[in-house]
Amino acid sequence: FNIKGDDLIVFLHIQKTGGTTFGRHLVRNIQLEQPCECRAGQKKCTCHRPGKRETWLFSRFSTGWSCGLHADWTELTNCVPSVVDNKKEVRLRPSR
């Protein structure tokens, strides 16, 4: 995983498998060069790349329910590229 590059972790939450606990772990406990910022009382954390205002994590705890409530693999596959691309300037979009 290259936090400084274009790599993106997309968390697919499978219900009743400990996904909520694991999703919280991703934003609160992973030791990276620039870990997520989680503020007390807020449901979402900010997970930006070092020196950039773009996220490295796509999950309900970082981007909210951007692809709908409990999106499955097909929904995420169709939704994530458009959500991520809409947040970047057109000239900075990586090829997928």
TrEMBL record:
Topology class, membrane: Single-pass type II membrane protein
Keyword Transferase included in the entry's annotation: yes
Top enzyme class: transferase
Record EC number: 2.8.2.-
Function text: 6-O-sulfation enzyme which catalyzes the transfer of sulfate from 3'-phosphoadenosine 5'-phosphosulfate (PAPS) to position 6 of the N-sulfoglucosamine residue (GlcNS) of heparan sulfate.
Family to which the UniProt record says this protein belongs: Belongs to the sulfotransferase 6 family.
Name of protein: Heparan-sulfate 6-O-sulfotransferase
Record lineage: Eukaryota, Metazoa, Chordata, Craniata, Vertebrata
